[in-house]
Amino acid sequence: MGWMQVGMRFQWTRRRVVGGPGRGDGHARRDGRGCATKWKVRAAPRSWTSWEAEDVVVEQKLGTLGFLQVDTAATVQDAVQYDNQRQAVKEGGVYVRLYRGRVVRGKSFNSKVVLKAYPSEREVGGSLARQLATNEVNVHAALQPTEGKYKGAHPCICKLMGSFTTKEGVSAGENWLVFRDDGTETAAQYASRAAAATSRGMAAGEGEFWDRLDPLRPLARRGRMIRNIGRQAIEGLAYMHRSDRLHQSLGPTSVVLRNVDERIPERVEARLRDLAFGVDVSEAGMESKSAQVDLAEALWRRAAREGAETVAERRAYGMADDVFMAGLFLAYMSFVSLCEPGTIDGPSLQRLLETTFQADVHAFREYCEADERWTKAVRFLDSGAGAGWSLLEEMLNKDWRSRPTAQSCIDHPFFQNMEVLR
Q1: Contacts with 153 (C-beta within 8 Å, 6 or more apart), sequence order
Q2: β-bridge partners, 164
Q3: What string of DSSP letters covers 100-154?
Q4: Phi and psi for 111 in degrees, rounded to 5?
Q5: What distance in Å separates the CA atoms of residue 260 and residue 205, rounded to the nearest whole number?
Q6: In angstroms, rounded to a whole number, what is the distance separating the alpha carbons of residues 401 and 50?
Q7: What residues contact residue 161 under an 8 Å CB cut-off, 6+ apart?
Q8: By C-alpha distance, which of 32, 416, 8, 37 is closest to 228?
Q9: pLDDT tens digits, one per residue of 331-383
Q10: 56 and 178 in contact (C-beta within 8 Å)?
Q11: Distance between CA atoms of residues 202 and 215, nearest Å
Q12: Is 209 exposed, middle or buried (0-12, 13-18, 19+ CB in 10 A)?
């Protein structure tokens, strides 16, 4: 299990931030100075899934997400890295570009958006890219009802506004997804900033006057921030499960944040994104023979090895697998944010929990307690009579049948007496 899993093992490459306006890729018109051409407002696109390239304009490149195919027998530790090295694309590899942009036509005129560009089929990994793009649209469609309590989008899941395929230029044939701008800082990026602030005894960003006299004040607010982020991510996961969908790639880079101000941790907004690996576990979906099933092939093989044979058992296994990854995410936010920078990272933490200690959280706690560089993280999880450790023990249980549901995690004492301002 890991931060990213689908029919084959994949890995993320770190997002590279590129300043300044995007250079365009044949999908947005710009004048000779690199500025966006002004458009007249016209009627809205026919549907939220049938936009045109001319409906949006690119303003800034945010970076690249890399999905690299690796040997299915490789360990998760080998499959996940957080470094700046862009590895060679193997057969089936996919790189997705991210941009910040703006809607220039239709009823959403002037709305800020985030654009995700999947490569065309003629590029390396193009066939898989098309499959991933199609699956991501389909998963969002299932999670964005046209009526009811969560009409449009759940507050803890990024909203897909539309999609289109470019028809001309160097980017012809690329599949572009248009998301509402729900923030661009990931939980991983916040954790990195928080770690640096922890080492200095300061707030990540602007703090309060009394922080300089009492370094425990920003630390206490950071703890509330971590719990708020974790709870909202799991709320989004619980909604996906109620909607018969698995996430299958929940991790620190697949949670995006808004209003990240440690002075008011209750205002932070966390949303799940990157649903390209989502799995339909409805009755119809489990019986389907579509291409989407191929994305879940490795999941179902693992389920069979773990004794999940019936449709109901496989469905339960998939949800328990998501909960396990959510537990790793919670551990990541607790340790990376509150430990000395550079002393722990995602792969190392996962290796300790999964391989070294075999999900024995009590033994893992004793190991962590012996390292003074991790003291703050241990104390954070100790608070509330060890509620944090208790939740991790449940979510990372080796027996998938004994793991709690995502909804049960939300009701755990670790997340009680919390306020979220939206």
Answers
A1: 143, 144, 159, 160, 180
A2: 176
A3: EEEE-SSTTTT-EEEEEEEPPTTSTTHHHHHHHHHHHHHHHHHHS-SSSTTSS--
A4: -70, 140
A5: 9
A6: 41
A7: 48, 51, 103, 108, 111, 113, 178, 179, 180
A8: 416
A9: 999 999 999 999 999 999 999 999 999 999 999 999 999 999 999 999 999 99
A10: yes
A11: 6
A12: exposed
- Could you tell me the CA-to-CA distances from 161 to 22, 44, 45, 145, 374 in Å, in that order? 21, 12, 11, 13, 42
Instruction: Look at residue 242 in the predicted model and tell me its pLDDT.
Output: 97
Q: Which amino acid is located at 309 in the chain?
A: E
As a whole number of angstroms, the distance between CA 403 and CA 399 comes to 7
Rounded Cα distance between 411 and 400, Å, is 19
Considering the entire predicted model, what is its pTM?
Answer: 0.81
CA distances from 22 to 59, 119, 160 (A): 5, 17, 21
> 24: left (phi > 0), else alpha (psi -120 to 50), else beta?
left
Nearest alpha carbon to residue 191 among 77, 62, 338? 338
Tell me the two tokens of residue 238: 């619980």
CA gap 143, 155 in Å, rounded: 11
Q: Which residue is it, tokens 């929940």?
A: 250
**Of residues 129, 363, 128, 329, the one with CA closest to residue 231:** 329
DSSP state of 43: P
- Taking the C-alpha atoms of residue 104 and residue 355, their distance in angstroms, rounded to an integer, is 51
